[in-house]
Specification:
2 domains, disordered N terminus, Immunoglobulin-like, 22% strand, 11 strands
């Protein structure tokens, strides 16, 4: 009786150990983690990148696969648009034909793709699935893509930013030159009070030098800007 009881005790003690090993095994299988942007905004005709990254405890092999799918708004139908296994296989049919490009690097955990010439019809949900055996169970993140027309306000802000980047350095140069001229003028006044006077040739040379520097700065600004000239219409 004592032997059977001892055996039963050892058997009961094995259950927690087996449970720990089981959950550890499940943890290893579920250790593949995938991340993607929840929302991406793009503009018609401008290339859009759909970012997807993954982390796996297993080394990358030729068994690793990546699948991107697309689901239109208010629809349960999904469409395969990209597959990867040692090589990229973008879709050759459907609305995304010849518009999907591989921009990822599996050895860096990058499974990203890009869409060229996007249109308003590309709005919808994109899913990124990665499998790296034995890591095959994982979350499947989704990305909501919103494509819109680039409005006049956006174009205006871009032009304003360009103007600032072009004219600001020139304005700084002009201000510095003016400050330098003001300091020299103040120095001349002090010298004149002390009885020292510059010749007309020295004053003329300094003035010409300052004017030349300002003209060069403005000339560089006009050359960088290169704004288009309006064409003149000729009358009959």
């Amino acid at each position: 009786m004592q032997q059977s009881g001892a055996a039963g005790g050892r058997g009961c003690a094995l259950f927690p150990l087996l449970g720990v090993l089981f959950f550890q095994g499940v943890h290893i299988v579920l250790s593949l983690e995938i991340k993607a942007d929840a929302h991406v905004r793009g503009y018609v005709g401008e290339k859009i990148k759909l970012k997807c990254t993954f982390k796996s405890t297993s080394s990358v092999t030729d068994k690793l696969t990546i699948d991107w799918t697309y689901r239109p708004p208010s629809s349960s139908r999904t469409e395969s648009i990209f597959h990867y296994q040692s090589f990229q296989y973008p879709t050759t049919a459907g609305t995304f034909r010849d518009r999907i490009s591989w921009v990822g690097d599996v050895y860096r955990g990058d499974a990203s793709i890009s869409i060229s010439n996007p249109t308003l019809k590309d709005n919808g949900t994109f899913s990124c699935a990665v499998k790296n055996p034995p890591d095959v169970h994982h979350n499947i993140p989704v990305t909501e893509l919103t494509v819109t027309e680039r409005g006049f306000g956006t174009m205006l802000s871009s032009m304003a930013l360009l103007s600032v980047l072009v004219f600001l350095p020139s304005a700084v140069v002009v201000v510095l030159l003016l400050l330098r001229m003001a300091r020299k003028s103040a120095g001349l006044k002090k010298r004149s009070k002390s009885g020292y006077k510059k010749s007309s040739i020295e004053v003329s040379d300094e003035t010409q030098t300052m004017k030349r520097r300002i003209d060069e700065s403005l000339h560089d600004t006009r050359r960088v800007t290169c704004w288009p000239k309006r064409s003149r219409s000729t009358g009959s």
